[in-house]
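Job type: complex structure
Entries:
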Amino acid sequence: MSKTMTEIRWHGRGGQGAKTACLLLADAAFASGKYVQGFPEYGPERMGAPITAYNRISDVPCTIHSNIYDPDYVVVVDESLLHTVDVTAGLNPEGAIVINSARDPEELRPLLRGYAGGVYTIDARRISEEHLGRYFPNTPMLSAIVQVSRVLEPGRFIADMEASFRHKFATKPQVIQGNMNCLIQSMKEVRGA
Amino acid sequence: MSIRERLSGNEAIAYAMRQIDPDVFAAFPITPSTEIPQYFAQYVADGKVSTEYVTVESEHSSMSTCIGAAAAGARAVTATSSAGLAFMYEVLYVAASSRLPITLACVNRTLTGPININNDHSDSMGARDAGWLQIYAENNQEAYDNYLQAMRISEHPSVRLPIMICQDGFITSHAVENILLEEDAAVKKFVGEYHPEHALVGRDHPLAVGPYDSCPYCMEHKVMQAEAMKNAKKVILDVAADFERTFGRKYGFFEEYRMEDAEVALVLIGSTAGTAKACIEKLRAQGVKAGLVKVRVFRPFPMDEIAQALKNVKAVAVMDKSEGYSGCGGPLFAETRSACYDLPDPPKMIDVVYGLAGRDCAVEDIEKVYRHLLKIVETGETGPRYIHFGQRSNQEEVL
C-alpha cells in the first residue's frame, strides 16, 4: 500500500481517554506538518462502554470520511477488550498492535486470533501511577504508538507534546512534568516484536 | 493571510461565531451539536465576545428567543441537532414567514426513533419545507466557510430568510482535521454589520411582528416568501464570488468533481463526498469515467443548474442520507429526478438510500454503487429505482 498515509485504530473504554489520546496524536502530527484526521466512533454514551477512535496521518490531504477497516496499527487502551472485541480485524500484517498490559507480548499473542504482525505491550497503569499518581493510560499509550509506528519522529514528537501540554495545562503547570515523564518512560519501556 | 490550524467541525463553527460576535446566542445543548454552545460559552466567560448568551429550557425556546431577538433587530444565532430541530418545528416556520434572518448551525443527526445519536440528514431534510435556506458542508473547512457566508445571504434585503448551516454529526463535527482560518478583522469586514430596514426596537418605523394574517393578505405574504427563496440564488452566488475574491476558496450551488466527461455520476450531500472523491480517483485510474455532484445548497434547490450538470451523464445514482418514507425514494432523489425531467435525453437515475443512523460508508461501498451504474449503462436496464444500501438483510441485495 502507499505509505503516504498511516491509519491507526484505537480501542478503549469510555472515560479512559482513548479519544483524547487520538486527538493528541492528531495535534502532534499536525505540529510536524502532516495532514491529519482524529475522530471518535461513539456507541452508547456511558463510562466503560467500548469506544473506537481513529487517526489518519498523511503527507497529502485525505478526503475519506469513513471509519478505518484496514489499519496499519491498533492501540488497545484496555486489555479486557481483547476478550470481547476483534481488535486485530483488518490489521495490516506488516503493522503492529500495542496493548496496555503488564504481561509479555507473546503471552497475549494467542488472544489475537492468529494475527502474525508485531505485538507490543506497555504497562501504562504502572507508569501512569508512578508519574501522575493516578491511572491515566492515554499518555503512555500515545508515546508507545509513536515509538512503535514511527509515524512521527520521536524527538520532534516529545518537543511538540511539551509545547502542547504547556498550552493545555496552562492553569495547572504542576502536571506537565508528570505527563512528560509518562511519555518518555513509555517510549523506553514498550516491548515486543 | 489564512491561519493554518486543526479543528473539529464544531470548534470551527464556534470559532466563526466568535469572530462574527453576534448580538444574541440562544443556547440549548443536544448531541452532537452541544460543543458549539459549550465552546461559545467559554468565549463569553473569557470576555472575547459581547454576545447576550441566553440559556433556555428547550429548543422551542431557543428558536423563539432568536425570533424575538431578530425581530428586535439583533443578529441572532443558535445551534442544534435531531430532536432539537424537530422540537423547533412550529417556530421554524414563524422565523421564516416573519422574514427573520436567523443563523442556525445544524449538526445533522438522525431523528428518533429508535433513539440513536449518529449522523444522517433526516433532521434538516424533515425541515426542508419550513422556508429556511439550507447549505451543507463536506468537511470542517466548508462548515466554517459556509458559516462566514451565511449572514450576508440571509440578511440580504432581497432574501431576509433564516439559514441553516449544516454539517454531518460526528463525521465532521467531532473529527479534528486541518483547516484554514481567516483573521478576525478580515472576517468582520467580510460579514459586515447588520442594520435591518425594519425592527421592533426603534420608534421611527413602528411595526407588528407575528399578527394574525387574514385571507385577503396571507397568500400574498406566502408568495412573497417564495419569491425571496428564489431571489436567494443570485445572492448565494454573489456572496460566494466575493468570498472567493477575499479568501480564495470557491463555492457554488454544488461542486462538480470530475464531471467534465463523466458517464456515471453520483449526486449526494455532505461528508460522503470526500469518500466518493477518493473512490473516483481509484476508478479513473482504471479508466472508469466516474464523476460526482456534491450538493451544497439544497434550499433553494438549484434545479436548472443540476440538470445542466447531469445532461451528458448516462446513469446517475442519487444517494439520499435520509429515508423520507415516501415509498418511492428520498428527498434529494425527488428533487434531482424532477430537475432532469425537461432534459431531452435524461440520464437513467436510481435512488440509493444509505448511511441511515450512522451506518458507515467506505470507499468500497461507493465503488459498488458506481459498478451498479456501469451495469445499468451496459445493459440499458435501470432495474429497481429505489434501493436501500448498507443494511443487513436476508434478501438478495441489488448492490
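Summary: The first strand of chain B starts at residue 3 and ends at 7. Chain B touches chain A at residues 6, 31, 117-118, 138-139, 168, 170-172, 174-178, 271-275, 277-278, 360-363, 365 (CB under 8 Å).
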